[in-house]
Amino acid sequence: MENPYRLLIVIITTLVIMILVFYRAESKRYTVGDGEGWDIGTNYMAWAQPHNFTVGDVLVFKYVKGQHNAYQVSKEVYRSCDVGNGSASAGVLKKYETGSDEVVLGEARDYWFICSFQGHCLGGMKFGLNVTLDLIAPPNTTDDGVTNNVSNSGRGRGRGGGAENNNFWALWAVLLLANLALFFW
To answer: Which residue numbers delimit the Phytocyanin domain (predicted)?
Structure first.
């Protein structure tokens, strides 16, 4: 007798494979400031604006240790550039100080980063971004200085929309058809 749960097993297997393949294929690494790295003089909001940051992406901060750092902070600290005593209660969520730091964007939410060295944040060494699960929405910058994944034009840029989105559905269809063929074979 046939297993009545065979189709369910095929569908679940397809979904798991798709999630694993798509998640790994879509995660990107971004060096903050590109070739300039994390340093004074780079417009980090302009750097972040064209990117579509999604869960699983990695930010790489490259800088001279002892001359800069990268602090993940609250929105209030981002706006004021005042880290107080540097504690979590002062709004410092995480400190990166090695000179080559990797930050995994593990949640869909807003992130804010600054350099806490005297005058660096006030001099523009800071940026905010919004990380989403949505792979279709393009980025745009809000008045808060956070790269937001909403556009007035509605057209996709970066990873969302276009060929990448079509590739996702093509891969999904092929895997589903292959599993269904195995089911009915």
So the answer is: 28-133
Secondary structure of residue 144 in the 3-state scheme: coil
- Same domain, yes or no, for 142 and 185? no
Q: Give tens-digit pLDDT for 25-67.
A: 567 899 999 999 999 989 999 999 999 998 889 999 999 999 9
SS (H, E, C) 57-84: CEEEEECCECCECEEEECHHHHHHCCCC
Q: What percent of the chain has pLDDT over 90?
A: 48
Please tell me the pTM assigned to this model.
0.63
Beta carbons of 86 and 116 less than 8 angstroms apart: yes
Say if residue 23 is in the same domain as residue 93: no
The boundaries of the domain holding residue 126 are: 30-158
- In the chain, the number of structural domains is 2
